[in-house]
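Final report, Chapter 2: Outcomes

The project's central promise was a pipeline that accepts a single protein chain and returns its three-dimensional structure in a standardized token representation, suitable for archiving and comparison. That pipeline is now operational. To close this chapter, we reproduce one record exactly as it appears in the project archive, with the input sequence first and the structure output second.
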Amino acid sequence: MPDRTVAPARIATASGPRAWLGQVLLYGLFALAIGVFSQWPPYRHLQPGQALIKLSFSHAGKPVGDCRPLSPQELARLPPNMREPTVCPRERSAVMVQVELGGVKVLERTVQPSGLSKDGTSAMYARLVVPAGEQHIAVRLSDDVRRRDAAWHRQATVHLVPGQVLVIDFNPGKGGITLQ
């Protein structure tokens, strides 16, 4: 028998003007759908006459206790490579935050430190929708479980325009509580 080689089958594809017209039509409909849904329905993050106050910070509280020296008996019980003369607690204090607007407490929260040993930072984020206009803000922050009086505090009177976002942050290097 003679050896016959069969040419591979070729899939018929339409490459005429109808195929091009179909692609243009489908791409046009896709672009139209994107255009419509990017403008509709309208999105308003705040109602007219409202402003937003955001409280956002990440801060490591003070250690929960003081370092203490180890006694000679405690040192003797430790392996030679672990004989540090003092021991310090790893755990950090929870951070307490209070926000008052016009003398009314609107937020009071305690944020626990992160980490398995509770030795990380305490991170907080909160949104407060307020009426636009003049607002008297008082913020207190305590980061030491041994002294629960507010170690950091800030009072200010701000004028918020409709749609404005005021950010309350905490940075000890910049003086503590900041309003931006």
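Archive annotation: The chain has a mean pLDDT of 89.
This record, like all others produced under the grant, will remain available to the consortium after the project formally closes.
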